[in-house]
Design goal:
This protein has 29 helices and 22 strands. The strands form 3 sheets. The chain has a 15-stranded mixed beta sheet. Strands 7-8-6-9 form a 4-stranded antiparallel beta sheet. Helix 2 (about 15-30) crosses helix 9 and helix 9 (about 240-260) packs across helix 12 (about 350-380). Helix content is about 50%, strand content about 15%. The model is unreliable at about 775-810 (pLDDT under 50). Belongs to the resistance-nodulation-cell division (RND) (TC 2.A.6) family. MmpL subfamily. Keywords: Cell membrane, Membrane, Transmembrane, Transmembrane helix. One of its GO terms (cellular component) is plasma membrane. This is SSD domain-containing protein.
C-alpha cells in the first residue's frame, strides 16, 4: 500500500507541491486572525462549585476581575493633598471610559457610589466624599468623612492614610485582559507625576502581564529554529539535511497556526508554545524520513549497477518512504491520539492545546508524507562516497558499545532504572499543587513589586465572594439572616491574610446609627425587616439605585459578602473556602444556602481539578498507547513494552517537580501529556526497526546494534530537536511559565529517549517477546489499523443605524428649550403611579405611589410629596421635597418603622428620585437660562416630527450640580414635549436615555401636557425604570396640608 502511495507521490510531485503551496498560502493568511489572549473562562473547570460560585457572584453582583490602583504622595505624606485627590478624581473619570471597564463598579473617594453616611443632629446626611475645589476646608472635610465612615478603611483609603484606592471591575471576555489593562496603564502613566505615585494590581493586571510575556515567543521561536537547524546539520552534514526538515517544519507550523486562526481560536500563554512543539515534532519526523532515505540511497547505489542518478534517487525515495511511512504514521497518530485525549479535561485552555497540537501534528504528517518526497525527487541526489570513506562515526561505535552493554549488564541497568523510579516515587508526594498566578513571575518584576506594596497598605488585591442565597424574596432583609452574615464577617476577619470584609450589614448598621443620633451604642442592625426596607428606600432618595448592587440583589433574595485578601495562593484558598463552608454550614437559617467564589477560590478550583484530571489524563493516555500498540503489533505484550518507558518518564517528571518545587499548575499540567504523546514515538520507532532487523538475523545483539545505529540515532536526533527547541524557553527570564515548561519538556525528552533506547532493549533481551518474530512488512500493513484508530479519535474530537442628515435652518434653540420646559410644568397636581425598576439581571422592583405637587408662592420653586402604598414593607413611607432657589433643597422622609420624620441632608438635584434612574433635577426640569442651547436637526421619534436640541451647562457649577456634560432633547414640534432625552456624564459618555410616551393634554387652558408612560435606561449600569401614571390631574386647588410633616405622619 505504502509503496503505491510513494510511487504516486513521486509521479505527481509537481501537483503535490502546488497543492501544498496553495494550502500553505491559504492557511498562512488565516494567521492574521490569531491573537494572544487570556480568557479566564477557558482556564477554569466550569463544573467546579467555586467556579459556579464565581459566575453566580458576577451575574448577580457584577464583580469578578477587579483592578486595584493605589495613589499616594511622592513625599510619603497623607493622601489629603490637592495633588493626590485631584489625581484620584481624574483617574476615576478617565478609567471609566476605557472600553471593557465596568464603569458602574468604580469605587474611589471620587466615585458616585462612595457616599459618606453620618448623622447631622436628628438628620441623616448622605453625600459624596468630595466634590468641588480641593482647598484646605474641603481637604479637612474629606478627612473627617473618611474617619467617620470606617467602612472604607483599607478599601478606599489605607489605614495609615498614605494610599488612596481606585478599584474597578472589568469585563475581559474573549478579548482578553491586555487591551483593557494597557488602556488603564496609559492613563496611570499620564496622571503620575513628581508629586504623585501610582501602582496597580489585581487579577487582570497579572493576566495582562501573562499575555505580554507570552509574546516572547516571537523571539524564542527563531532561536529554537536555529538550534534545531544546528542539530540537523550535525545529523546529516549536508545543507539539504539542514534545510529540508526546517522547511517542512515551518510549513507544519504555518498549517497548525492557520487552522487556529481559521477557527478564530486565540492563543494564550499555555498554547503559545504550540509552534515550537509542532516545529520540533515535524522536524524530528522529517529527520526520520531523510535518515532512511540516505540509508536506502547508499544501499541501492552499492547494489545496483544500472540506472541514472535521477532514477536511483526516485527508487531510494520510494523504498525509504514505503518502509518509514508505516512507523512514522503509527507513531505520529499515537501522539495525535494522546494530545486529543486532553479534551477530557474540564479546562478549556488545555482542551484547546490538545486539539490544535494534535491537528498541527496531523498537518505535519501529511506534509512529511507528501512534500518531502515530492521535493526530494527534484533535488540533486547525494554524492555516493566510497565505502572506505563511510567508516564508523563516533555514534556508530557508541551504539555498538551500548548494544553490548545492554546484553551483558542488563541486570545492572534494570536496577539503575528501578532506583530512579523509586527515587521519583519518594519525591512525588511532595509535588507543590499551587496555582498562584503571581508566582508565574520573578520577584523583581514590576507587577510583583506593585502587588506587594498595595497588599502591605490596603485590604488586599484579591477577592473572595460569599453569596448567601435565599429561597424567598426579601429574605436577606431578615435580621436573623443579616446577623449570620455579620457573624461570618467577624469570623473571617480573624483568618490570616484577610484584610477586610464588606457586606450590606456594614451599611445598614451605619444607617441605623446615623438615624438614631450617631451614638456608638446604636451601631447595630435594624430590629425588623420592615425597617431595613425603609432604610434602603430612605438611602435611595439621595443615593444611586445601583449603590448597593455589589452587596444586595434587587429582590433581596441574595446577598454578597466581599472579602479582600492579600494572597492568591490556591492552597490558601482551599483552606479559607473550606473554613467558610464549615463555619457557616451549621449556622445558616432555614432556606438559606451559600456559594463561594472569586479570584482566590478559582485558583483553588484549578488546583483540585488539575490533580484529579492529571491522574485521569495520564491513565487515559497510557491506556490509549497500550491499545494502539496492541493493535499495531497484534500483541498485548507489545502494548506493555510501549507504556513502560512512558510510566518511567511520567514518574520522573512528577518526581522532579516534587524535588525542585516546580508547581503543578495550569501551564505545567500539559507536560506529562506531551511526554507521553511524543515519548511513545521513540518506543514505536525502536520496536519497528528491531523487528525489521530480526527478520534479517537471529542474533539479537547484532539486530540491536543495527537498530541503535539507524532508528536509535534518529530517535536521538528527534529527542534532541524537541529538547533543544524547548530549551530556549529557559531563556525567558522572570517568566516561570516558559522556564518551568522548558525544564520539564527537556527532562521528559531525555528520560523518554533513554528509556526507549536502553530500558526497552534491556527488557527485550531478558524476555524476548513472540511479536518480534513476525515479518515487519505485515506490521507495516497493519499500521492502517492505527491510522483508523487515531482518525476515529480525531473524529470524536471534532464532534467534541446611521443618523439622518438634515439641512440647517434658522431655529432659535433657546426658545424651543424654554417651550419644552414650560410645556409640562403645572401649578399643582395629584397623581397615582406605578414605578417598576429593573436591574441589569432583569430582576424587578415594583412600587405604587400617590403624589402631589404645588408651586410655591414665588412661582419658581416646587413642592412635591410622594407616599408609597406598596409593597407592604415600605407602605406609608413618605418623602417631601421643598425646592429652595439659591440654597440646598430640603428632603424630609417619614419612616413608619421609626414613627419619625427625618431630614435627609443632601443636594438633591442629581440625586436619584426615590431609587429610580431619574434625578430630582430630571423630574422638575432644568431652567433654560442655566444652559447653552444648539439646534442640531429635525428627526422623527415615535412617528412624531421633532426638533433635536443640544443643551450644555453654562458654568462648571451647573455641570457639577446636574451631573451632566450635556443633554440632547427630541422636542415634539406640535406640543413642545421632549419625547426623548439623552443624558451625558461628566466625561461626555452617554449615561442614560429617557423616553416619554402616551402624552396627554392635562390643562387645555394653559396648554400643559403630561407623559403618562416614562422609560429610562441607564446605559452604563444596565438599570431601567418604567413609570406608568394611572392618574394625573392638573388642578389648582391642591391643599397646602399635603406638603407638611403632619400629612406624612398620617398613615393610611
Amino acid at each position: 500500500m505504502f509503496r503505491h502511495f510513494a510511487t504516486f507521490v513521486v509521479r505527481r510531485r509537481l501537483w503535490i507541491l502546488l497543492a501544498i503551496l496553495a494550502m500553505t498560502v491559504f492557511l498562512g493568511l488565516q494567521i492574521r486572525n490569531l491573537k494572544i489572549v487570556i480568557n479566564p473562562n477557558t482556564m477554569l473547570p466550569a463544573h467546579h462549585e467555586n467556579v459556579i460560585g464565581t459566575n453566580l457572584a458576577e451575574s448577580l453582583f457584577g464583580s469578578k476581575h477587579v483592578i486595584v490602583i493605589g495613589v499616594g504622595a511622592a513625599n510619603g505624606g497623607t493622601i489629603y493633598q490637592p495633588d493626590v485627590l485631584s489625581a484620584v478624581r481624574r483617574l476615576s473619570e478617565r478609567i471609566g471610559a476605557v472600553p471593557g471597564v465596568k464603569r458602574h463598579t468604580m469605587m474611589s473617594l471620587a466615585a458616585d457610589k462612595a457616599k459618606s453616611i453620618q448623622a447631622d443632629g436628628e438628620d441623616l446626611k448622605v453625600e459624596r466624599m468630595f466634590s468641588g475645589a480641593l482647598d484646605e476646608a474641603e481637604l479637612a472635610a474629606v478627612r473627617q468623612k473618611v474617619r467617620k465612615n470606617p467602612i472604607y478603611a483599607g478599601t478606599l483609603v489605607s489605614r495609615d492614610e498614605t494610599v488612596a484606592s481606585v478599584s474597578v471591575a472589568i469585563d475581559a471576555g474573549a478579548g482578553g485582559f491586555r487591551a483593557i489593562v494597557d488602556g488603564v496603564d496609559k492613563i496611570i502613566a499620564e496622571e503620575s507625576g513628581p508629586a504623585v505615585v501610582m501602582r496597580a494590581s489585581g487579577t487582570p493586571v497579572f493576566f495582562a502581564a501573562v499575555e505580554r510575556y507570552a509574546q516572547r515567543m516571537g523571539i524564542l521561536f527563531p532561536l529554537a529554529l536555529i538550534l534545531i537547524g544546528i542539530i540537523h546539520y550535525e545529523a546529516f552534514r549536508t545543507m539539504q539535511g539542514l534545510l529540508l526538515p526546517l522547511v517542512t517544519a515551518l510549513l507544519a507550523v504555518v498549517w497548525g497556526l492557520g487552522i487556529m486562526g481559521a477557527a478564530k481560536v486565540p492563543m494564550d500563554a499555555f498554547n503559545a508554545t504550540t509552534p515550537i512543539l509542532i516545529l520540533a515534532v515535524a522536524a524530528g519526523h522529517a529527520v526520520q524520513i531523510l535518515k532512511r532515505y540516505y540509508e536506502e540511497h547508499h544501499r541501492l547505489a552499492r547494489s545496483e549497477a544500472g540506472g541514472s542518478a535521477a532514477q536511483l534517487n526516485d527508487r531510494a525515495i520510494v523504498e525509504s518512504l514505503s518502509k518509514v511511512a508505516p512507523v512514522m504514521l503509527t507513531a505520529g497518530l499515537v501522539a495525535v491520539a494522546g494530545f486529543f485525549s486532553l479534551v477530557t479535561f474540564d479546562i478549556a485552555t488545555i482542551r484547546t492545546f490538545g486539539i490544535f497540537t494534535g491537528l498541527g501534528i496531523l498537518s505535519a504528517l501529511l506534509i512529511e508524507l507528501t512534500f518531502i518526497p515530492a521535493l526530494r525527487s527534484y533535488l540533486p541526489a547525494p554524492r555516493v562516497a566510497p565505502a572506505a570513506a563511510n567508516g564508523a562515526r563516533l555514534w556508530d561505535r557508541l551504539a555498538d558499545a551500548v548494544g553490548v552493554l545492554i546484553v551483558k549488564r542488563r541486570a545492572v541497568i534494570l536496577l539503575g532504572f528501578l532506583a530512579v523510579v523509586v527515587g521519583a516515587a519518594v519525591c512525588m508526594p511532595h509535588v507543590n499543587r499551587e496555582n498562584s498566578t503571581k508566582t508565574y513571575f520573578g520577584d523583581g518584576v514590576k507587577v510583583r513589586q506593585d502587588d506587594r506594596y498595595l497588599n502591605a497598605r490596603l485590604a488586599g488585591t484579591n477577592t473572595v465572594y460569599v453569596v448567601f442565597q435565599g429561597k424567598h424574596k426579601d429574605q436577606m432583609k431578615d435580621p436573623a439572616v443579616l446577623a449570620v452574615i455579620e457573624d461570618a464577617q467577624r469570623h473571617i476577619e480573624r483568618m490570616p491574610q484577610v484584610g477586610k470584609t464588606l457586606s450590606i450589614v456594614d451599611f445598614l448598621k451605619k444607617m441605623n446609627q446615623s438615624m438614631n443620633g450617631g451614638a456608638a451604642s446604636v451601631h447595630a442592625l435594624p430590629s425588623t425587616a420592615e425597617l431595613v426596607s425603609q432604610y434602603l428606600l430612605f438611602y435611595s432618595m439621595s443615593g444611586d439605585p445601583t449603590d448597593f448592587d455589589a452587596y444586595l440583589d434587587y429582590d433581596a433574595r441574595n446577598a454578597c459578602l466581599v472579602i479582600w485578601t492579600r494572597s492568591d495562593s490556591s492552597k490558601y484558598a482551599q483552606k479559607i473556602v473550606q473554613d467558610i463552608r464549615d463555619y457557616l454550614g451549621p449556622r445558616l437559617p432555614r432556606d438559606v444556602t451559600i456559594q463561594v467564589g472569586g479570584s482566590v477560590p478559582q485558583s483553588s478550583a484549578l488546583s483540585e481539578v488539575l490533580v484529579e484530571g492529571k491522574i485521569k489524563n495520564v491513565a487515559q493516555m497510557i491506556l490509549a498507547v497500550f491499545v494502539a500498540g496492541a493493535i499495531i503489533f497484534r500483541s498485548l505484550v507489545a502494548g506493555l513494552y510501549l507504556i513502560i518507558p512512558l510510566l518511567v518518564t511520567v514518574m520522573v517528571n512528577f518526581g522532579m517537580m516534587g524535588l525542585t518545587g516546580i508547581p503543578l499548575n495550569t501551564p505545567n499540567s500539559v507536560s506529562s501529556a506531551m511526554a507521553i504523546g511524543i515519548g511513545a514515538d521513540y518506543a514505536i520507532y525502536l520496536l519497528y526497526r528491531i523487528r525489521e532487523e530480526l527478520d534479517k538475523t537471529s542474533d539479537f545483539t547484532l539486530a540491536l546494534q543495527e537498530t541503535l545505529r539507524t532508528a536509535g540515532k534518529a530517535v536521538i536526533y528527534v529527542a534532541t530537536a524537541i529538547a533543544g527547541g524547548y530549551a530556549v524557553l529557559m531563556l525567558s527570564f522572570d517568566f516561570y511559565v516558559h522556564i518551568w515548561f522548558g525544564m520539564l519538556i527537556v527532562l521528559s525528552m531525555v528520560v523518554s529517549a533513554v528509556s526507549a533506547l536502553v530500558l526497552i532493549p534491556c527488557l527485550l533481551s531478558m524476555w524476548p517477546p513472540a511479536f518480534l518474530k513476525g515479518r515487519a512488512r505485515r506490521a507495516g500493513l497493519r499500521s492502517a489499523g492505527a491510522a483508523c484508530l487515531a482518525i476515529a479519535m480525531a473524529a470524536g474530537v471534532a464532534g467534541a443605524v446611521a443618523p439622518a442628515e438634515a439641512r440647517a435652518e434658522e431655529v432659535n434653540a433657546a426658545e424651543l428649550a424654554e417651550k419644552s420646559y414650560q410645556a409640562t410644568r403645572v401649578d399643582s397636581s395629584v397623581s397615582e403611579a406605578t414605578f417598576t425598576m429593573v436591574n441589569a439581571s432583569g430582576q424587578e422592583r415594583v412600587r405604587q405611589t400617590f403624589g402631589a405637587t404645588k408651586l410655591q408662592a414665588n412661582g419658581v420653586d416646587n413642592r412635591r410629596v410622594i407616599r408609597f402604598r406598596s409593597p407592604s414593607d415600605v407602605r406609608n413611607t413618605s418623602t417631601l421635597v421643598l425646592e429652595n432657589t439659591g440654597k440646598s433643597d430640603e428632603i424630609w422622609v417619614y419612616l413608619p418603622g421609626l414613627k419619625k420624620v427625618r431630614r435627609l441632608a443632601s443636594n438633591n438635584t442629581k440625586s436619584s428620585f426615590v431609587g429610580t434612574d431619574l434625578s430630582y433635577g430630571d423630574l422638575v426640569g432644568y431652567r433654560t437660562a442655566d444652559w447653552n442651547h444648539k439646534w442640531l436637526r429635525k428627526e422623527d421619534v415615535q412617528g412624531v416630527p421633532c426638533h433635536v436640541v443640544e443643551s450644555t451647562p453654562r458654568t462648571p457649577e451647573i455641570a457639577a450640580d446636574s451631573g451632566y456634560s450635556k443633554r440632547v432633547n427630541w422636542i415634539a414640534r406640535d406640543n413642545s414635549v421632549a419625547l426623548r432625552t439623552e443624558f451625558y456624564d461628566a466625561n461626555g459618555n452617554l449615561l442614560k436615555t429617557a423616553d416619554n410616551a402616551e402624552v396627554r393634554q392635562v390643562d387645555a387652558k394653559h396648554g400643559k401636557w403630561q407623559a403618562m408612560a416614562v422609560s429610562v435606561k441607564n446605559h452604563q449600569t444596565g438599570h431601567k425604570t418604567l413609570i406608568k401614571l394611572t392618574r394625573f390631574e392638573a388642578k389648582g386647588n391642591v391643599a397646602d396640608d399635603y406638603f407638611t410633616t403632619r400629612y406624612m405622619e398620617k398613615e393610611e
